[in-house]
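Course assignment 3, question 2. Fill in each field.
Student: A.L.
Task: Predict the tertiary structure for the chain below.
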Amino acid sequence: MSYETQLIVVILLPLVVAPVCYVVPSPRVAWLLTLATAMSCFLIAVQLLLAVLDGGGFSYHLGGWAPPVGIEYRLDVFAAFVLLVLTAIFLVCQLYAGSLTGKSGIKEIPLAIAPTFFAATLLCISGLMGIVVTGDVFNLFVFLEIASLATYAMISLGRQRRALTAAFQYLVLGTIGATFFLIGVGLLYAETGTLNMQEMSTLMPELVDRRTTFTGMTFVIIGLALKLAVFPLHLWLPNAYTEAPSVVTALLAGTSTKVAFYALVRMTVSVFGLETIADTPLPLILLIVGALAVIVTSAQAILQVNIKRLLAYSSVAQIGYMVIGVGLLTVEGLTAGFVHLFNHALTKTGLFMAVGIMLLNTVDAKLPSVAGLGRRMPWTSAAVVITAFSLVGIPGTAGFISKWALLDAAMAQEAYFIAGVIVIGSLLACIYLLRLLDVMYFRAPEKVSEHMPDETLTVPFPMITALWVLAIACLWFGLFTEHSLSVAKLAATNIMGVQ
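Answer field:
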């Protein structure tokens, strides 16, 4: 199978399997189909990344129609890097979700609707991968809507009625963001006469001074910023992450916002161009909103009692770090942003998986409910320690690498205020994560319920295995950094057109 064919298969495969999973009567069969699809997509993504690193990027013209008439799928180092992150997180999450099909199941999702969850997951990942590989801005919108609709459905699967409210809130704000993006695409098409990203990028320098072009750029950026949950457009994210089932939150935290960040970088740096955006207030705006996200939402995380909401606000702060990397507008800044995309996907997916495991043995996800779990769930708690250290940026973990790279990029630009924000953000992360670890290890449970005997608790094997895969990855990529850093730097160099 040629690489061009694999580029299409990796998107179509989950799209085709999704309706099959929905109609099969057995949750176990639906899970096995989804797991096999996830493994296939991951192996294809690995081959595509190796091919791009070895021979450069390539494109595929859908249906044999060359752009601007046809739709082009294009893969470069940045796209292949994000595609690998997506498929890896998708695979680990499906391993984790294997407990959905057991007798105990995951309390947050009824066994009867497990096939619906797997079908929605496949549709979501298909849309996200389509966003990554498409070279057409309108096709990007189509895939964005496929992923978004599936996401709304997955969030609504939570047992509490608040999940429906969170899904509806995300639907409203997500629709506003998609509308902004579509209006921007229409304005840009009116000026450039093309929807192909590469052709549009060659025309942008001559058209940027036109009011319609600038307005179109603004609408596109605002729409993607809302999808990314950039501060202060993040209001949908805390509720969605808190009320969705933990397996859904883990998947979204590691994939959805990462792809939205990819789309923002692709449109601003690759399509609009460095020279174009350098002459606008965009870099300064990104630095300001990124810094505010790091400080404000980290402070909000400290005040939270619900662990999932705490981690949700933390996610907004981590998005701020990535946005700062783009705002620096340097190869070093983008490299740090790309590495943080990778490292945060590992870290935050692992933390939300740990919360899901805790919920098997606790009444809710509030801090008092996890008191004493450090001794009663030693393996889960140890993984929480590793991923929490990575989120803070402790040396020896993956999170340290990306934060150090971002700090180095800020210092190279003499952006001392931004460097201070990075340090303060890490200190604030220490505070809210130490609160969690303190309760888990040093607080005795107020009351041991009947379903929580006073002994070491067992955890379903698929769930603890998936969690420890990510915990080990946080350590591995914190100690052996050459692979993630080199690919991220190559992607940043490639997308900025620097030789």
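Instructor remarks: Residues 448-456 have pLDDT under 50 and may be disordered. The chain has 20 helices and two strands.
Grade: pending
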